[in-house]
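Quick one, T. Sequence first:
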Amino acid sequence: MVRPHGTARTLAALLLLAMAVVVLVSLGRWQLRRADERRAILAAIEHGRSQPPLMLTAATPAAELKPWRPAQANGSYRDDLTVVLDNRNRDGRPGYWVATPLLLKNSNPPTAVLVLRGWMPRAEPGQPAAVAPPAPPDMQHVTGELAERVPRLFELWHFGNDAVDTLPPRLPAAGGKPPTVQNLDLAAYAEASGLRLLPTVLEQSDADEDVLKHDWPQPSVDFNQNQGYALQWFGFASIAGIAFLVVAWRALRRWTAGGPGGKGRTGS
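Structure tokens:
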């Protein structure tokens, strides 16, 4: 006896299994692409850190300003142009990054590099608000690593599509208090401060300031983890593919034996 509902169930199962194979293979390929991206980031970090330290000047070519490259600069801080970056966590503790431009020594035209001076913790509830420590006076020798830009965080928006925290149109800010923002764009900062900036950021690695910490977050480069995930997804895809073949083989046997309902033809 032919059972149409049995055929429908079989076709539905085959369709779902085929879709599962496609989706699982796609997830595996996506993990392989993520592994390639992380491998490329690791190669860029290793290449940058293998370069000799770069002395930053107003004439430093942009092609030399590679991320992760060790760099150093001589100059004086413009503490009046300091900006505080909010929501920067360290070891699970909320805090701030302090960014101050360093006016490069003997630069002509006057040129600065934005220095991420370090991390400071947010004040505990009930305690006075944290205050960014003033930048050291006089001429400074600053060492660190280059970054392409200030690392960004997810930014909240108002319903009117205006940023929750924005840089003042002109710096220094009124009242002398450093503005607090979540993200800092170099072009916007150069316009607000009136400074000519190098197209890079210097993440300071050592300083005499005990208040600020200098262990900067690093991107995840564990590509082996993504390869492991890809292997899992491909394994699941193989299981779904085998199940597809088993269901298809059993259905074919039933159909060739006399009907999709599972009972063969009987003699008269």
